[in-house]
């Protein structure tokens, strides 16, 4: 189920800065995914606590989810798990 919601992580200079400064990860998600679904799928997949999820649809028609983690979990650790670092 998580793979249908969370499609893939986004790794750009801006997202790397967000990881370090805001403890956030950015994922491309399904267009039909709601914030609650994204939060639940992310928490189940990575066994972490999510504080907030913000979404936006890009002009190219993809949906981005900005996932803010609680302070006890580091976004950089998950990025390392995913091979982004």
Quick summary:
This protein is 39% helix and 29% strand.
What keywords describe this structure?
single chain, alpha+beta, 4-stranded antiparallel β-sheet
Strand and helix layout:
Layout: H1 2-5, E1 6-9, H2 13-22, E2 24-29, H3 35-46, E3 50-57, E4 63-69, H4 75-81
Antiparallel strand pairs: 1-2, 2-4, 3-4
Structural class: alpha+beta
Corresponding CATH superfamily: RRM (RNA recognition motif) domain
Q: List the domain count as a whole number.
A: 1
Report the CATH architecture. 2-Layer Sandwich
* Main sheet: strand order: 1-2-4-3
Helix count equals 4
CATH topology: Alpha-Beta Plaits
> Which whole number gives the mean pLDDT?
94
SSE series: HEHEHEEH
Rg computed from alpha carbons, rounded to a whole number of angstroms: 12 Å
Proportion of helical residues: 25-40%
CATH class: Alpha Beta
As residue ranges, the low-confidence spans are none
Tell me how many strands there are.
4
Shape field: globular
What does this structure look like?
The protein has 85 residues and is an alpha+beta fold. It has a single domain (2-81), classed as Alpha-Beta Plaits. The chain is built from four helices and four strands. Strands 1-2-4-3 form a four-stranded antiparallel β-sheet. The radius of gyration is 12 Å and the shape is globular.
């Amino acid at each position: 189920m998580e793979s249908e919601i969370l499609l893939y992580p986004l790794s750009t200079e801006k997202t790397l800065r967000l990881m370090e400064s805001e403890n956030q990860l950015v994922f491309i998600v399904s267009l039909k995914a709601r914030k609650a679904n994204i939060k639940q799928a992310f928490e189940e997949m990575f066994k972490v606590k999510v504080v907030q999820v913000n979404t936006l649809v890009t002009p190219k028609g993809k949906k981005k989810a900005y996932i803010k983690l609680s302070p006890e979990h580091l976004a950089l650790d998950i990025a390392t798990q995913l091979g982004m670092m």
